[in-house]
Amino acid sequence: MGLAGLIIFSLNLQNAGIAIIGLLPAGLPTLHWPTIPRAHLGELLGAGAGLALISFSSAILTARSFAAKNRYEIDADREFTALGMANIAAGVFTAHGWRARIPNG
């Protein structure tokens, strides 16, 4: 941030028509439950179900890959619960949802 501020100040970018976002709020985001308009609920549930299926499949494939490599057992129900709780927490704290990535090799 210091380098960006120095560049903006030294090149006088704020007066050259380049948008500067200004100060960002400090600290952690506040905890709040997101509101969803009823008109969008059906649309969001369909898309959310598809994303949940893809994300869960990816997480299980990743977990099984690590389990096979390190010789331990996984429980799909516990993985599903953990993934759901992580995504709920991310939503409440206005963060991005969690997803898994299939390891390469």
Automatic annotation (TrEMBL):
Cell location: Membrane
Membrane topology: Multi-pass membrane protein
Pfam families named among the record's database cross-references: Sulfate_transp
GO term, biological process aspect, one: transmembrane transport
InterPro entries named among the record's database cross-references: SLC26A/SulP_dom, SLC26A/SulP_fam
Record bears the keyword Isomerase: no
A GO term from the CC aspect: membrane
Residue intervals of the SLC26A/SulP transporter domain: 8-95
Superkingdom: Bacteria
Membrane-spanning segments: 40-61
Keyword field: Membrane, Transmembrane, Transmembrane helix
Name by which UniProt lists this protein: Probable sulfate transporter Rv1739c/MT1781
Organism: Iodobacter fluviatilis
